[in-house]
Automatic annotation (TrEMBL):
GO terms for molecular function: K48-linked polyubiquitin modification-dependent protein binding; K63-linked polyubiquitin modification-dependent protein binding; linear polyubiquitin binding; ubiquitin protein ligase activity; zinc ion binding. One of its GO terms (cellular component) is LUBAC complex. The chain crosses the membrane at residues 824-842. Gene3D superfamilies: 1.20.58.2190, 6.10.140.1100, DNA helicase RuvA subunit, C-terminal domain, Zinc finger, RanBP2-type, Zinc/RING finger domain, C3HC4 (zinc finger), Zn-finger domain of Sec23/24. SUPFAM superfamilies: PUG domain-like, Ran binding protein zinc finger-like, RING/U-box. Residues 541-554 have a biased composition (Polar residues). This is Uncharacterized protein. GO terms for biological process: protein linear polyubiquitination. InterPro entries: PUB-like_dom_sf, PUB_domain, RNF31-like, RNF31-UBA, RNF31_RBR_mRING-HC-like, RNF31_UBA_3, TRIAD_supradom, UBA. Residues 300-334, 347-376, 404-433 form the RanBP2-type domain.
């Protein structure tokens, strides 16, 4: 016996784990609400105690600590408060598992009134939040640790699933619909106490022995099926036993909780209405279930709990009278349709409009496109021809028997409907069940029974003129769009298509064909009218078709003022075409418009400096009335010298400072010498034009580029040389690094050339102050290193080589270890090997040393 119980518990545990894993996967991947709810329902139906079902949350501890009351009524109220708190905890978990989390998902504030009234008011609420990850205690609430970047989705999904399952079990326990209430009755003894109104008349108590003997687990073969099959309610082993025993069921459907029960399935133990039965058993796995038709006499008429409905967003169980959910305040969705119209699964926060199929956010009541309410059903297809609608039957006379049955009140919007209508005319919800209006009785003597007269159906209403006008406008618009698309393929603009359609007047000829055939002749006609007619004649004359122009009134009077005579004006086809389009296809008005536009363009060109109006007229005709193209042709002769100079092989001519056009000289200075601004160019030009200061252009440009102070520039351009007493610009003065003296380049070169050729190396100092002291070894090296760089650029090559030779000799003479031969040019005597002495002697002998070996040998020793 113990082995059998152990094997049963093992099978149930495996089944629970399989259902749990699939439900967690649905919740983790934001599956549909129906799949998640089916998984939770399957977990609740498994006959295991809460300690075996719930691995994360302390379900038994929470139920025991929060079940307060001495009787059943008080205990049910405390469990209801616990269920509400679990609903809020469920929302916290769903927000964490959602891909789009709230902005402040990391913290839970204690001052939140909903949190303070629900979660914080029960025992164990904060422990569940800690399991979610809110483990960091703050002064004003709970939060995730700073090191945690993302919540543990798998753990949060597992905890959320247990919270949802416990809340569903509590809701079923409160409604007396729990399949295994004995587990809770053991923990809460007050649940065994009955209320004062006593048991139901049609309820039959189930003996405990018979209840224990029922195998309440699924067969082993069912474990190998798909996970969705595990979501079905637990079947009993003996179908006859389950059908013979009266189980707890409500008066309404166990799925939608709205419509009355119409069938009972013995296979899945469900009490279903007609629509839910059709939808639920449309699956191939449940198509062979045996169902029993339930009549109204088989159902309980008196039930302790009212019909309810589940919110598809937060799965809150609400009363049938509530239109909005008590927790999330979202409206109740319409009843499910047939299986072929079952909506595709969306996220919890979205809903699809059944009229226009637009997906709206969960917070919106009306559709964003068609503005139909969320509860509205799909409207019927509108027939091509309006059918005669039956008239509403006349209101019954008060007091007649059977008259109240012709009316029924919608339980959702309280609108009074009539019996032939099965769907509410206001909210489009079906009639849940007949609800009779209270009949107010009057004395028979004061009531006259009048039979309901048959009313002839009204004639079909006439077509609305607005609808007919809209239909006509739509047809014309579609036709115009087709013509425009055809014109774009042929290179015709939409304006031309529209104007051609208006002018042609023949619906059999396409506008594109008419434009290709007639428009060139019409444009030539407009050009001829503009060339041969006067503006005054155009105002009073008739067009060529014999139609008087009544539109050329005030807007055309400016022609005489702007151009008193229009003769001699030759228009191009492009100008005539633009005028024809702007005039709406009227030839006479187009001619006046073209003359007005041509006069305005000529006036604009004259304002730019081109005074030859005949030339302006000609270039405008050549460029089709475009001012930019005409301006380019007018400027081309003026740019011809520039073009010739640019493409010429001759060198660039020097800048003429005395040119009368100062703007031209400044432009050349700015372009050639890249001066910083236009003001610097004018400053350079003014300095160059001074008679008393013969500055060169390059010196002035260099000084102006460095400074904009006129006095400073003059000082820089006129520096006196202390040797020749001439004025030179600063750029042509040179100075040594050893002193502050500066001399001109000519004096600098002449001084050091004479010093190198005719004087000693000690005389190569500043010609003004005779600094520095060459005998000082500290200044000697640094002075000659910088002097070498300056002399390399200004001295001649042979003088520069002589300077290097003297500098080398000066350095060798000061070396005490250097041996010197005064008889040869080699000078150096190598003292380290005797064989080299012969070499030097041989070299000296051939070089003409008169002492030969003796002199060198004497110097050696």
């Amino acid at each position: 016996m113990n082995n059998k119980k152990y094997r049963m518990a093992s099978i149930l545990s495996n089944q629970l784990e399989e259902v749990r894993c699939h439900a967690e996967a649905c919740l983790h991947s934001t599956g549909s609400v129906l799949e998640i709810r089916a998984g939770i329902l399957a977990m609740a139906n498994i006959p295991l105690p809460p300690s075996a079902k719930y691995h994360y949350i302390a379900a038994e501890t929470m139920i025991i600590e929060n079940s307060i009351g001495n009787n059943r009524k008080e205990t049910i109220g405390s469990l209801q408060r616990l269920s509400t708190a679990l609903n809020i905890l469920e929302k916290y978990g769903c927000n964490l598992t959602s891909s789009s989390r709230p902005k402040y998902w990391r913290t839970v504030k204690h001052n939140n009134p909903v949190f303070r009234a629900t979660v914080d008011a029960i025992q164990g609420g904060r422990a569940v939040l800690c399991l979610y990850g809110y483990s960091n205690q703050q002064p004003d609430g709970l939060s995730f640790p700073d090191v945690v970047v993302e919540p543990d989705i798998e753990k949060v999904a597992a905890v959320t699933l247990e919270v949802m399952s416990l809340r569903m079990e509590l809701d079923m326990l409160i409604k007396e619909a729990h399949p295994h209430p004995e587990f809770f009755e053991r923990m809460i003894p007050s649940l065994n106490q009955k209320d004062d109104f006593g048991p139901m008349s049609d309820a039959v108590a189930i003996p405990s022995s018979l209840r224990e003997s029922q195998p309440l687990y699924m067969s082993l073969s069912s474990l190998s099926q798909s996970p969705t099959s595990a979501f079905l309610p637990v079947r009993t082993a003996n179908a006859s036993t389950s059908t013979s025993i009266s189980t707890r069921h409500t008066a309404n459907c166990t799925i939608c909780a709205i419509f009355p029960v119409a069938a009972h399935c013995n296979s899945c133990v469900q009490w279903l209405c007609t629509e839910c039965d059709k939808l639920y058993h449309s699956s191939a796995e449940r198509a062979n279930h045996h169902r029993t038709v339930v009549t109204s006499s088989k159902m309980r008429k008196n039930h302790s709990s009212l019909p309810s409905w589940h919110c598809t967003h937060c799965t809150r169980v609400n009363s049938i009278q509530d239109i909005l959910c008590e927790m999330c305040e979202r409206p109740r969705l319409a009843s499910s349709g047939p299986a072929k119209e079952f909506p595709q699964p969306f996220t919890i926060t979205e809903w699809q409009c059944k009229s226009c199929t637009v997906v709206n956010t969960g917070s919106s009541i009306l559709c964003e496109v068609c503005e139909r309410p969320r509860l509205a059903t799909k409207p019927p297809a509108t027939p091509t021809h309006p059918l005669p609608t039956p008239n509403r039957p006349a209101a019954p006379v008060l007091g007649m028997p059977g008259d109240p049955d012709s009316q029924w009140v919608c339980q959702f919007c309280t609108y009074v409907n009539y019996t032939p209508v099965s769907v509410c005319e206001m909210c489009d919800l079906p009639r849940p069940e007949p609800a009779k209006m209270p009949v107010k009785l009057h004395p028979p003597s004061q009531v006259k029974r009048v039979p309901v007269l048959s009313v002839k159906p009204k004639d079909p209403p006439m077509e609305d003129p607005d609808l007919r006008r809209q239909k006509l406008m739509r047809e014309e618009g579609l036709k115009l769009i087709e013509l425009i698309r055809d014109g774009e393929k042929k290179g015709v603009s939409p304006e031309e298509v529209y104007t051609g359609m208006r002018i042609s007047g023949d619906s059999n000829i396409l506008p594109c064909d008419w434009l290709n055939a007639e428009l060139p002749h019409l444009l030539d006609q407009i050009c001829a009218m503009a060339a041969s007619s006067r503006a005054a004649d155009l105002k009073t004359g008739l067009n060529q078709n014999g139609l008087s122009n009544e539109t050329g009134t005030a807007e055309d009077t400016g022609v005489e003022e702007e151009q008193p005579r229009g003769g001699g004006v030759t228009l191009s086809r492009a100008e005539a075409k633009m005028a024809w389009l702007s005039a709406g296809g009227e030839t006479e008005r187009a001619a006046r418009q073209s003359l007005r536009d041509r006069h305005a363009k000529v006036k604009e060109l004259c304002s730019l400096g081109f005074t030859d109006k005949a030339r302006c007229q000609e270039v405008l005709r050549q460029n089709g009335g475009e001012v930019r193209g005409a301006l380019s042709l007018l400027q081309r002769p003026l740019m011809e010298p520039f073009h010739q100079r640019m493409w010429s092989d001759q060198p660039e001519p020097p800048i003429d400072i005395n040119h009368p056009d100062k703007q031209r000289v400044c432009r050349r200075l700015l372009a050639v010498y890249d001066l910083p601004s236009w003001g610097r160019c004018e400053l350079a030009l003014s300095l160059l034009q001074e008679r008393t200061a013969p500055y060169s252009l390059d010196d002035v440009v260099q000084a102006v580029r460095e400074s904009q102070d006129r006095d400073f520039i003059r000082r820089v351009l006129a520096k006196e040389c202390p040797i020749c007493l001439s004025d030179f610009p600063h750029s042509k003065m040179q100075s040594l690094t050893s002193c502050q003296c500066s001399v001109c380049c000519g004096c600098f070169q002449q001084h050091f050339t004479i010093a190198v050729r005719d004087k000693h190396i000690r005389d190569m100092v500043c010609p003004v102050c005779w600094e520095p002291d060459i005998n000082d070894p500290e200044h000697l090296n640094s002075y000659f290193s910088t002097l070498d760089i300056q002399l390399r650029e200004c001295l001649e090559p042979e003088v520069y080589d002589l300077f290097h030779k003297k500098l080398t000799e000066q350095a060798l003479i000061k070396d005490p270890k250097f041996l010197w031969c005064s008889h040869v040019s080699f000078n150096l005597i190598f003292p380290f090997a005797f064989v080299y002495i012969g070499y030097y002697v041989f070299a000296n002998h051939h070089r003409g040393c008169s002492n030969n070996f003796i002199t060198c040998y004497t110097h050696l020793y």
